[in-house]
Specification:
Elements (H helix, E strand, L loop, with lengths): L4 E5 L3 H13 L3 E5 L2 H11 L3 E5 L7 H11 L4 E5 L2 H10 L5 E4 L4 H20 L4 E3 L2 E4 L4 E4 L2 E3 L3 H11 L6 E2 H9 L7 H15 L4 E4 L3 E4 L4
Parallel strand pairs: 1-2, 1-3, 3-4, 4-5
Antiparallel strand pairs: 6-7, 7-8, 8-9, 10-12, 11-12
Helix pairs in contact: 2-3, 6-7, 6-8, 7-8
The structure holds calcium ion (CA).
Length: 224
């Protein structure tokens, strides 16, 4: 697994250094930027997984940094503020930071916030988006299938077979391979089982969804 990278943007050198020391001890790769323009430049160069961002900076401020980096790609931002009322103000402005920490803060609190933010992002990334095939929607995380907005009940094996086919649309998948990949049967016996599950999927989701390639296998068609 890649080491996660954090960009610390803070012009007060002692604070920046102590944040960096603590995060490095937690296993992060840390870079420091000390003003607005170099924060944006280093963000593009280092592609960090998270940004710790002070509001008051030379060049341009943390709000502008936040705006510019978020315009590039979504990244979790933990913003450092000087006072509680500044935090309230920023929350009200909805600048795009994911969390705020008011100075002075403990390094323990900072690392806890960093871990929470990264976990949240990683959990969101681990949830695959729903697959859409015309009016059919496959939600892998919930193991649900809808057709024209209505739930379609599939058996667990039918579901796995559908997801497998949908992951390689228009590709002809031999029945033996489907047996190996979906059922875990490696000896090629039981191809009739594949046929009967395909028949069930067609009955439930429409006859046109899966094409038969005679003597070979099946391919999922993408509806227009
Ligand atoms: Ca500052």
């Amino acid at each position: 697994m890649n080491e996660r990278r954090v960009l610390v943007v803070e012009d007060e050198r002692t604070i920046a250094e102590s944040i960096a020391v603590r995060l490095r001890a937690e296993g992060f790769t840390v870079e420091i930027a000390a003003d607005g323009p170099s924060a944006v430049a280093q963000f593009h160069a280092a592609q960090p997984d998270l940004v710790v961002l002070d509001v008051m900076l030379p060049g341009f401020d943390g709000l502008e940094v936040c705006r510019r980096i978020q315009a590039d790609r979504p990244v979790p931002v933990l913003m450092l503020t000087a006072r509680d009322d500044e935090t309230d103000l920023l929350v009200g402005l909805a600048v795009g930071a994911d969390d705020y920490l008011t100075k002075p803060f403990s390094m323990r609190e900072l690392t806890a916030r960093v871990h929470v933010l990264l976990r949240r992002v990683e959990r969101a990334a681990a949830t695959p988006p729903a697959i859409r095939l015309g009016d059919i929607e496959i939600n892998e995380a919930e193991r649900r299938v809808r057709r024209a907005g209505s739930d379609v009940h599939l058996t667990p094996t039918e579901f796995d077979l559908l997801v497998h086919l949908a992951g390689r649309p228009r590709t002809v998948l031999p029945r033996e391979r489907l047996l190996a990949d979906v059922w875990g049967w490696g000896d090629g016996n039981g191809t009739r089982t594949v046929d009967s599950h395909i028949k069930a999927l067609r009955r439930k989701l429409g006859a046109d969804l899966i094409r038969t390639v005679h003597g070979v296998g099946y391919a999922l068609e993408l509806p227009l």
